[in-house]
Amino acid sequence: MMHDCGHGSFFRNRTVCNWTGRVLGVLALTPYDVWRQSHAIHHASTGNLDRAVWVTSLH
User: Fold this and answer.
1) pTM for the whole thing?
2) In this structure, are residues 6 and 32 in contact, taking their beta carbons and an 8 Å threshold?
3) Sequence-ordered list of residues with C-beta below 8 angstroms from that of 32, at least 6 positions apart, any chain
4) DSSP tag of 12
5) Minimal CA–CA distance to 23: which of 2, 39, 9?
6) Alpha carbon 15 to its chain's center
7) What is the average pLDDT score of the chain?
8) Cα angle at 32 between 20 and 18, to 5 degrees?
């Protein structure tokens, strides 16, 4: 669910997604905003091994 909130797809409202993601991040002991930024970098560099950022995820 946190992953879907990070993509803005869990709810129609982005603000609701972000606040839900933050609450879930507390439960998962993962700072949501930091995770969301690193996950966006992951998507931006997918398939480009020169730019790849290796991140673990909890989904």
Assistant:
1) 0.70
2) yes
3) 2, 5, 6, 18, 21, 22, 24, 25
4) S
5) 2
6) 14
7) 85
8) 35
